[in-house]
Amino acid sequence: MAEPAGRTVAAGLRPGLQALRRKDADALRGDLVGGLTVAAYLVPQVMAYAVLAGLPPVTGLWAAVGALVLYPFLGTSRLLSVGPESTTAILTAVAVGPLAAGDPARYAALAAGLALAVSVVCALGRLARLGFLADLLSRPVLVGYMAGIAVIMIVGQLGPLTGVQVDGDGPLGELRSLVTGLGGTHLPTLVLSLATLTLLFVGARVAPRLPIPLITVLLAAAAITLLGPTATGIATVGPVPAGLPVPGPPRLGLTDYTSLIGPALGVSVVAFTDVVLTGRAFTGRSHDAPDPDRELLALAGTNIASGMLAGFPVSSSGSRTALAKATGARTQLHSLVALVVVVTVLLVGGDVLQALPRAALGALVVYAAVQLVYVAEFRRIAAFRRSELLLSLATVAAVLGLGVLYGVLVAVGLSVLDLVRRIARPHVAALGFAPGVAGMHDLSDLPGTQPVPGLVVHRYDAPLFFANAEDFRRSVHRAVAEAAETAPVRWVVLDLEAVTELDLTAADALIAVARELAEDGIVLAAARAKRELVADLEAGAVLEAVDAARLYPTIPTAVAAFHAETDPPSAGGAAT
Predict the structure, then answer these.
(1) CB atoms within 10 A of CB 293
(2) With the C-alpha atoms ordered 77, 82, 86, 89, is the resulting torsion angle positive or negative?
(3) pLDDT, averaged across the chain
(4) pTM (global) more than 0.85
(5) What SS3 class is residue 338?
(6) Rounded-to-integer distance, Cα 415 and Cα 65, Å
(7) Pairing of strands 428-434, 437-442
(8) 3-class DSSP state of 130
(9) Rounded Cα distance, 404 and 426, in Å
(10) Which of 50, 63, 124, 403 is the most buried (most CB within 10 A)?
(11) Nearest to 476 by CA among 510, 448, 434, 442
(12) Could you read off the pLDDT of 63-111 as tens digits, one per residue?
C-alpha cells in the first residue's frame, strides 16, 4: 500500500503549518507554549547529557540544534522531541573513550564522527527497509535494558556529585574507586548535589508543569555566582564558546571511521528502537503512528546535522515528548519554537551557561536515570510470567557485566531467542467434542470434552520451521500414543489454521510423519490450510506423501470424511 503524501515529507510539521496559514490560535498557542516549555527543560538536560558523553556541556546544545532543524521536516511523529538523549550519550562515551587515548580534541572529533557513522547506518537501514527491526526488542528486554543504562548513568556521575576523582573500568570499578576515595569528598559539592537532587524530585512532584530542571540549575548557578567558585571550590562549566560552530565534518581518517562501524551499529539499534517506541507511546491514533522506515531516514538526517555541528549521536527523549504533550503541543512546530530558544541561548546566554555547576548537571543526569527504572513494569512482568522477569533481569546483568554496546547486542539476541523459544515449543492441542457446545475444542479446555474414537485431531499453534520441526513430529506421535490407550487410531487430522509459514525442514518433517503413520496403518489428513500454505506443501513435495484429496477446508468436513470411510455400513447398506 502506498504511503499517503502527508506521511512522506514533513508529516509531523504539516498540520502546524496548516494551522499557521489558517491562523488557528488554539493550535498555535499549544505549539508555542509546548516549544518554550520543552526548550526550558532541554537546555540544561542536553548540557548534562554532553557531560555524560564525556564532552563539553555546550556540545549538547550544538547537537540539539541539528536535530531540531531537521526532524520536523524528515520525521513522521507530530510530538517526538529529538536530540541528545541519555542512552546515546553513554554509548558515545563507551565507544569513543578507548579510541581517544585521553586527547580531548580527538575525543570530540570521534564523537562527531560517530554521529556521522550512525547516519550512514540508518540511511542504509532505510534503503534496506529494516524498519521492522523495531519490533524485535520485547518489552521485558527493553525494561531491563533501560534499568541497566540507569545504573551506569548514576554510577558515572558519582564523581561530579561528590568531588571525588573516580576512575575504573565499568560500574564495579568506578564504585570501588569511589569507596577508596571517599575520604576526599568535597563537602560543598556534595551539599549542592543533594540540594539539587532534592529540588528536582520534590519540584517535579509538587509542580510537574513547571520547567523544574531549568529552575534548579539556574538557582545553582546563581548560588555559585553569589558565593564565587573560588570560595566554594565547586567546579563549573567554565567558558562557553559563543554562537554555533562552523559546520563541517570532523578531521578523521578512514581508519577512524572503520573503528566506529561497530559502535555505530549499536547506537543505531538503540536510537532507532527508542524513536519508534517513544513515538508510538505518544500517538493518539494508529494511522498517526511513526513510520519506522521514515524514522530511519529522519535519524540519518538528524545525526548528519549533529555530526557536522561538532555534536554527538542523537535520538528521542521520552521526558521531553511527554512534556510537549502535557503543555498542549500538537505538531512539530513546537520543535522549531524550541530551536529558536536554543539558538538564542547559544548567542547571548554564555555568561549564564559558564556559571552552571557541574555537580548540578550531574544531579540532572541522576534525576533522568531514575526515570528510566520502571519498578511498576518489573512488578507487572513478574506477575505475568516468571520467565519474562528472568529475561528482563538477564538483560540488566548483560548491560552491567558486558558493557553498553555488547549489552545492546545481547538485548537484541535475547529478544530473538525468546521469540524462537516460544515458537519452537508452542501450545499443542488434541481436539474433541464438548457436550452442548458447537465445534471441536481442546480436550483440556471444557469439562466433558471427548475425542472421536479412532480419530486424532491435532492442532499445533505456530508456524512450522526448522526450530520446531522435530517438536512437531514428536507431538504428533505423542498424541497418537495417548489416543491409542483408549481406542486404535485410524486417522490423524492436522488442524493447520495456525500454521502460517512452512520451511523446507518442516516440509521434510511432515513427509516423515506421513510415512511413519502410513507404516502403522494410519491415514494422515489435514484441514483449514490456507491457500499460501497449500502452495508451500506442494512445493515441498508434501503432497506426494499426503494425498491432496485429504486436504479438507474445515474440521467438520474432515471428521465427516473419517466417519464415511471408517464407520461400518448400516443394515441398509448406507454409511452412517
Answers:
(1) 18
(2) positive
(3) 85
(4) no
(5) helix
(6) 34
(7) antiparallel
(8) coil
(9) 32
(10) 63
(11) 510
(12) 999 999 999 988 888 888 899 988 899 889 989 999 998 899 999 999 9
- Residue position matching grid coordinates 484429496: 549
The three-state secondary structure class of 266 is helix
A 10 A CB-CB count for 317 gives 28
pLDDT per position as a tens digit, 522-545:
999 999 999 999 999 999 999 999
How many C-beta atoms surround the C-beta of residue 504 within 10 A?
14
Q: What is the pLDDT of residues 114-124, one digit of tens each?
A: 999 999 999 99
One-character DSSP codes across 207-237 = -TTS-HHHHHHHHHHHHHHHH-HHHH---B-
Q: What is the pLDDT of residue 281?
A: 65
Place of cell 480419530: 455
Residues 6+ apart with CB under 8 A from 575: 563, 564, 567, 569
**CA distances from residue 427 to 459, 460, 552 in whole angstroms, order as listed:** 9, 7, 23
Grid cell for residue 39:
526548550
Cβ 223 vs Cβ 192: under 8 Å: yes
Q: Over range 208-214, report the average pLDDT.
A: 79
| C-alpha span between 138 and 146 (Å, rounded) | 12
Are the C-beta atoms of 47 and 240 separated by less than 8 Å? no
Give the type of residue at 32. Answer: L
- What's the CA gap between 397 and 574, in Å, rounded? 69
559 exposure class (CB count in 10 Å sphere: 0-12, 13-18, 19+): buried
How far from 440 is each of 245, 428, 451, CA to CA, in Å? Answer: 71, 14, 9
Cell numbers for 96: 569513543
Question: According to the model, what pLDDT value does residue 411 have?
Answer: 74
At which residue does the C-alpha cell 526550558 appear?
A: 40
Distance between start and end Cα atoms, the chain: 51
Coil, helix or strand at residue 494? strand
**Number of alpha carbons in the 13 Å side-chain half-sphere of residue 48:** 30
Helices (DSSP H) in 327-437: which residue ranges? 333-348, 350-354, 358-370, 375-384, 386-402, 404-424
Question: Which residues make beta-bridge pairs with 494?
Answer: 458, 526
C-alpha cell at 277: 517506541
Give CA–CA dist 413/367, Å, rounded. 30
- Which tens digit of pLDDT belongs to each residue from 327-362? 778 888 889 999 999 999 898 877 777 788 888 888
- DSSP letter (8 states) at residue 246: P
| Cell numbers that stand for 86 in this block | 541519555
The answer to whether 457 and 442 are in contact (CB under 8 A) is no
Residue range(s) of every CATH 3.30.750.24 domain in the chain: 427-566
Question: pLDDT-based confidence at 2, cuts 50/70/90?
Answer: very low
Query: Which three cell numbers, joined as nine digits, stand for 42?
Result: 532541554
Q: What share of the chain is helix, strand, coil (3-state, %, to 5)?
A: 65, 10, 25
Architecture of the 427-566 domain? 2-Layer Sandwich (3.30)
